[in-house]
Design goal:
Blueprint (H helix, E strand, L loop, with lengths): L4 H5 L11 E4 L8 H5 L5 E5 L5 H4 E3 L18 E5 L17 E7 L7 H8 L3 E10 L10 E9 L6 E6 L8 H4 L1 E6 L4 E6 L6 E8 L4 E8 L5 E2 L4 E2 L11 E9 L9 H4 L13 E12 L4 E4 L2 E3 L4
Antiparallel strand pairs: 1-16, 2-5, 3-4, 4-16, 5-15, 6-11, 6-16, 7-8, 7-15, 8-9, 9-10, 11-12, 12-13, 12-14, 17-18
Length: 308
C-alpha cells in the first residue's frame, strides 16, 4: 500500500515544525555537469580519479525518481560511480592504489571558510540526512567492503559511517553482505538492514557533538523516518574542533587481500590489495544537514524529537 498524506497526518508522534537546514545537498535541477567539474556551489568533487568529475558523478534529472520524503524541496538523484581510473592521489602523498573511490564533500559556497563551515555543521546536535539506492545497471561487488557516507576528521577516523558489503578481511554469505550498516566511531554497528534493490533507503543520523552520542533514524521508500536506535554512546570520538571534519558521500571501495603480497602490505588497504577495476555505482538523494532544535525531520514537513 502506498504511503499517503492521511497516514502522515495520523502519525501523532511527529510534529510539523521547520528545522534550520545548515547545508543543502539536494541537487536542484539546474545543477549541471559543468558545475560539478568546477566544484561549484555545495559540492566539492576533488576525491576522484584522473578524469573530470562529471566522469564519476552524474546528475540524473527526471530520469529517475528521488526519495519521496521531501516533496517541497525537489532534487535530482546523483549517481556516484567508480571504475579502474578511480585512484585518488592526495596532495603530496602516494596514490591510493588499494582503493577505488569517488566522493562528494559538503562545502560552503564560494569563499567560505572550511573550519567555520564544519563548526556550523558539527556543533550542538545536528542531523545528517541521506538516501541511497542500488544502481542495478552498475552493481557493487559485495565481496568487498564499501564505505559510502561518513564524517572524517583530520585523524582519518569516521564520526559515523554507512558501510555496505563484506568487511575487509572477513567472509560473509551473499545475503549477509548485501546489508547497509550504520557504524559508530569505534566500528560498533548501531543499525543494519538488507539493501534491497529498487528501493530508496532513507537515513538520518543525529550527532550530539557535546555529549558524543548518535541516534539513527531510517525508513524505506515513501515511509517517514522513524528511530531505529536509542541515543547511543560515541565516546571514542574526539570532542571539539579536532573531532569535526568533512562530510563525505560517494563510493569508497576497499580491496580484497592479495595473498601474493608480503604480509606487511596485506593490511595496508589504502595502497595494496586486489581491485577488479569494474564500473560500479550508487545513487543518492535527499542529502542535507539540519539543526535539531525543533527535532529531526522525518519527511513531509514533520519532525520527531531526538529523545533518548
Amino acid at each position: 500500500m502506498l504511503f499517503s498524506a492521511v497516514t502522515v497526518a495520523l502519525n501523532l508522534a511527529a510534529v510539523a515544525l521547520a528545522t534550520p537546514v545548515l547545508w543543502e545537498g539536494r541537487a536542484p535541477f539546474s545543477y549541471t555537469e559543468a558545475d560539478i567539474n568546477e566544484s561549484f556551489g555545495p559540492f566539492l568533487s576533488v576525491v576522484k580519479g584522473t578524469q573530470n568529475a562529471s566522469h564519476y558523478f552524474t546528475f540524473l534529472s527526471h530520469s529517475q525518481p528521488t526519495t519521496p520524503l521531501w516533496p517541497t524541496t525537489p532534487d535530482q538523484p546523483i549517481r556516484s560511480a567508480i571504475d579502474n581510473s578511480s585512484v585518488f592521489t592526495p596532495g603530496g602523498s602516494a596514490p591510493q592504489l588499494g582503493f577505488r573511490r569517488g566522493e562528494i564533500i559538503a562545502q560552503p559556497f564560494e569563499n567560505g571558510n572550511r573550519t567555520t563551515f564544519d563548526a556550523v555543521l558539527e556543533s550542538g546536535v545536528t542531523a545528517f540526512h541521506f538516501s541511497v539506492q542500488a544502481d542495478e545497471q552498475l552493481p557493487l561487488n559485495y565481496e568487498h567492503e564499501y564505505q559510502v557516507v561518513w564524517i572524517e576528521p583530520n585523524d582519518g577516523t569516521h564520526v559515523f559511517d554507512l558501510q555496505i558489503g563484506t568487511p575487509f578481511n572477513t567472509t560473509l554469505s551473499s545475503a549477509a553482505a548485501r546489508v547497509l550498516r550504520i557504524r559508530a566511531h569505534d566500528g560498533t554497528v548501531l543499525f543494519q538492514t538488507s539493501f534491497t534493490p529498487a528501493s530508496w533507503h532513507n537515513f538520518a543520523v543525529a550527532v550530539d557533538w557535546d555529549n558524543l552520542t548518535l541516534k539513527v533514524f531510517y525508513s524505506k521508500d515513501a515511509l517517514p523516518l522513524t528511530a531505529v536506535s536509542k541515543v547511543e554512546p560515541n565516546s571514542s570520538a574526539t570532542k571539539g574542533p579536532d573531532g569535526q571534519g568533512e562530510f563525505h558521500f560517494g563510493v569508497l571501495k576497499l580491496p580484497l587481500i592479495d595473498l601474493s603480497e608480503p604480509a606487511s602490505e596485506q593490511g595496508d588497504v589504502v595502497h595494496f590489495g586486489i581491485q577488479e577495476g569494474t564500473h560500479e555505482a550508487l545513487i543518492y538523494s535527499g542529502v542535507f544537514v539540519e539543526n535539531t532544535q525543533h527535532g529531526v525531520s522525518v519527511g513531509y514537513g514533520l519532525t520527531e524529537p531526538v529523545g533518548h
